[in-house]
């Protein structure tokens, strides 16, 4: 198994390797165990960039099951399409997700685009098949996120989706952010017939069906109301709202609800 890495420059995909996770001290390890077992008022957003054509991805896809079940985490699977040339067209991929991954790489300035890549709270990226690295990144981004955290709520009310965002905390440098609406399918199984994963049947969890900006947050408390019927299409089972700085910057708030 190998980790797939790609940086798109003038239409060329370059290969690289994933940075190893940092070792944790005993105190950090204790915090990690607490983070894994107890809900937090800060909701962590995990974005797994994966592909059915990547032989290194199935372990990361399986690991997503444990994070999708946590109440303090919004886990998102975002299948990308840039490995389709290897012989199998990803049946869940969306070019929007590939573009989002590249935006993250550009925003960070490191150019790192690979699968399976886990982006944590819009602030760090690690190998998506390493629970230790993911948990370490959750802890590492939590303190900064806590200082900038904006309360977000989303709930269903009849034929409407009601979204509420809070005020910017005192001292936060952020006074403007994009409000993203994300629709999810909880679980789907795909039999892969060609390419590197030929013959495998892989389960995917919290697969993003669509991700679109629906408004702007201006640093003050606000409310949005959307048509539930327009979002609750067949296959859409969850609805998440993410408050993110810029196009692919730090995430400062998030919430999820069933549709």
Describe the structure.
- It is a single chain.
- With 259 residues, the protein is of the alpha+beta class.
- It has 5 helices and 15 strands.
- The protein has helices spanning 26-37, 58-68, 95-108, 131-148, 228-231; strands spanning 4-5, 7-9, 12-14, 44-50, 73-79, 114-115, 117-120, 124-127, 152-157, 160-165, 177-191, 201-217, 222-227, 238-244, 251-258.
- The strands form 5 sheets. A 4-stranded mixed β-sheet has the order 5-4-7-8, sandwiched between helices.
- The longest helix has 18 residues, at 131-148.
- The model is unreliable at 7-40 (pLDDT under 50).
Mean pLDDT: 87
Topology pattern, helix = H, strand = E: EEEHEHEHEEEHEEEEEHEE
Oligomer: single chain
Number of extended strands: 15
Q: How would you characterize the largest beta sheet?
A: 4 strands, mixed
Q: Could you give a quick summary of the protein structure above?
A:
With 259 residues, the protein is of the alpha+beta class. It is built from five helices and 15 strands.
Secondary-structure blueprint of this entry?
Layout: E1 4-5, E2 7-9, E3 12-14, H1 26-37, E4 44-50, H2 58-68, E5 73-79, H3 95-108, E6 114-115, E7 117-120, E8 124-127, H4 131-148, E9 152-157, E10 160-165, E11 177-191, E12 201-217, E13 222-227, H5 228-231, E14 238-244, E15 251-258
Parallel strand pairs: 4-5
Antiparallel strand pairs: 1-6, 2-3, 4-7, 7-8, 9-10, 10-13, 11-12, 11-14, 14-15
Helix pairs in contact: 1-4
């Amino acid at each position: 198994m190998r980790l797939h890495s790609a940086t798109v420059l003038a239409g060329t995909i370059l290969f690289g390797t994933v940075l190893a996770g940092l070792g944790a001290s005993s105190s950090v390890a204790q915090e990690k165990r607490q983070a894994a077992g107890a809900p937090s008022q800060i909701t962590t957003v995990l974005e797994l960039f994966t592909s059915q054509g990547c032989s290194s991805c199935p372990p990361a896809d399986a690991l997503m099951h444990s994070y999708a079940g946590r109440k303090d985490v919004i886990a998102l699977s975002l299948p990308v399409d840039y490995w389709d040339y290897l012989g199998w067209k990803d049946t869940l991929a969306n070019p929007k997700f590939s573009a989002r991954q590249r935006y993250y790489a550009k925003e960070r300035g490191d150019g790192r685009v690979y699968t399976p890549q886990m982006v944590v709270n819009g602030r760090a990226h690690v190998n998506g098949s390493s629970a230790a690295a993911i948990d370490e990144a959750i802890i590492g981004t939590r303190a900064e996120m806590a200082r900038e955290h904006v309360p977000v709520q989303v709930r269903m009310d009849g034929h409407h989706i009601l979204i509420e965002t809070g005020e910017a905390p005192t001292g936060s440098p952020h006074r403007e952010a994009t409000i993203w609406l994300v629709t999810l399918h909880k679980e789907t199984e795909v039999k892969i017939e060609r390419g590197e994963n030929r013959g495998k049947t892989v389960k995917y969890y919290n697969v993003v069906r669509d991700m679109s900006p629906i408004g702007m947050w201006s640093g003050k408390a606000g409310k949005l109301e959307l048509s539930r019927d327009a979002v609750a299409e067949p296959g859409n089972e969850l609805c998440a709202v993410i408050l993110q700085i810029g196009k692919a910057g730090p995430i400062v708030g998030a919430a999820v609800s069933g549709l």
